[in-house]
Amino acid sequence: MINDILNLWKLIDRPGIEDLISFLNESDFFRAPCSTKYHLAKPGGLAEHSLHVYNLLSEKIKRFSMWHIPHESVIICGLGHDLCKVNFYQEGGEPCSDAQYNYLCSLWAQKRDLLTDEDWNIFTSQFIKDEQVIRSVPAQSATVIINWLKNNPKEPFPELPVVYSVNDQLPLGHGEKSLSILQDFICLTDAEKLAIRWHMAAWDISDYSGKWSFNNANKMTPLVTLLSTADFEASNILEREGES
Fold it and tell me: Residue 209 half-sphere exposure, CB side, CA atoms within 13 Å?
């Protein structure tokens, strides 16, 4: 997948493309999730989603015979629409609720003597400080641990999910931030700018004027509709939890 994405970017013939490729390689683009919990919330999810959107966008271009849309635009919009998520997530996830934390502490006090030395060491190394369960246990991890302590404390310590939380170091928005990152390296056409800015469609309209801007963008280039629907199809069909 990494080579597929890099080889597509290398087809772009614009000044700055080599610097953009270097930025992607040096960032967490190929390791980052695509969300914290909604779709492809796993290592590499962002790259996988980007390739899905590129492929769907390419198929739409062929299906509707829109050969006037350059392949470079398809690559840039498909692979670059979510660059706002680069260096955006951090491992750990949101901490558990007070009720969940209190229940976890109660179970730990009740069941700790049932654990093997190995499980004791695993749990205490990650979740105990100053002889207390740390308050920052991620909610999803707490759910797994509670189930283990409650039902199977003599079984091996369970594998915990890799969970993420948002750590936005440049809060410019969504499509706007992707545009900003791309334009740090390469020039974009107006159609590419409009498509990337509005790729979230109605989900990214914050005020009345935004509605009119989105509608006008759709009228100016079909790339807006093509990209937003490809993004929606990728996240809601190809990447649905528990489905292929």
Answer: 0
